[in-house]
Amino acid sequence: MTDGSTMRNVHPPQVAGMFYPGDAKTLDAMLDDCFADARTADIGTPKVLVVPHAGYVYSGAVAASAYRLLERRADAIRRVVLVGPAHRYPVHGIATTSAERWHTPLGDVPVDLEAVSALARMPELSINDSAFRGEHSLEVQLPFLQETLGDFSLVPLLAGDIRPERLADALSYVWGGAETLIVVSSDLSHFHDYDTAKRLDGATVAKIETLAGIDLDGGEACGCRGISAALIEARRRDLRVTALDVRNSGDTAGDRNRVVGYAAFAMEDAATAELSKADRDTLIRAAGNALAEAVETRQMPEARLPADLSPPLRAPRATFVTLHLDGALRGCIGNIVPSRPLYADVIESAYKAGFADRRFAPLTASELPRLTIDISILSWPRPISFADEADLLTKLRPGVDGLILEAGPHRGLFLPAVWQSLPEPRAFLAHLKDKAGIGDAPLPHDSVVRRFVTESFGGPFMAS
């Protein structure tokens, strides 16, 4: 597990004085400036952060938009698994250092030697001190982490020539619980003109937010393997991804002829994720406005995104909107694949629930004040592996799982809210089969069942 390099107890700074200030006082002041310039997003507790790694003058404020989210859980985090690309030395598999501590102008950070030892079971892992000489992708994250967390241990990993699935396996070994934070270090596109970079990076951001970027390449993000590995785990573990800030060097400190793209993302548990009350109210009001407009026009309203819309409401999400009239179901329609910003998807789902649900007549103006609007934000649907119907029943999580059942031409979906009226798994599945058109027959051999979780909230009709 070694390349023969000399053991060093402390890994010294490689880019202090270049990518960030080399003395503690100036570094503290620059970090304060980065946080002051950072954009804010009110989201829950992140398990994974994706952050850029350029010089602080270029990408520091973008990175700070992610690190500021750690303030609410700084006391809980005791370990940071830090993954980045190797820029200066070819790495086969995953490289770590022999150092027991990493030093920055703000002090030393201990390496979690026990976690490194656990990773040593993977043949892809090697101790390769040479790969870290002059390398900046991990080092530039440490002062931000020291500023926000104080005391923590580090698992430093450089990802080289390795399949994202195997890197995801490495992350799973050290995933841990609330005490462990995963940080992926990556910039986006490199050295395009400003407009081209905006277009390319926009497409990459959409891939990441919809968990579709499990095959990113180096042209999209230099830390493509780390991001893809994190997204593989996000699919496995029901994480929700939000882009916090997206800019490039043409927006910060460089010219616009040859820019580098930067973005910060947060990944949080979809089962416990919660929008702020302000964002929830914004969505309920957007749905109400869409219904009120459609009552007059009988057409789907155009979803114009407000300029001050928060990052969580700009993120692509799949939603269902359920309408109740005096407590009785009045319509329910939505999407299972995220393809548009959350704000826009709620507008579309609300319109269809009110005017395209074939079980009900179109809404009328007199019904609007009596409506309640319930919004469900769906996680990425995960396939359930099962041998037969009896086995499937044992794997359902009452009150938690939404289910999508597909078998040939048959398809049915139940939101988790259906458990309230069908709390027993056998009855839940039986009614879902009936909805899909299968009836009492056994599940067909080609059945695919996927589960999802939702963030659900609602309130009485309101419009501005």
UniProtKB/TrEMBL annotation:
Q: Which SUPFAM superfamilies match?
A: AMMECR1-like
Tell me the domain of life.
Bacteria
Domain AMMECR1, which positions? 278-464
A Pfam family annotated for this UniProt entry:
AMMECR1
NCBIfam families from the xrefs?
AmmeMemoSam_A, AmmeMemoSam_B, TIGR00296 family protein
**Similarity comment:** Belongs to the MEMO1 family.
Protein name stated in the entry: MEMO1 family protein M2319_000570
What organism does the record attribute this protein to? Rhodobium gokarnense
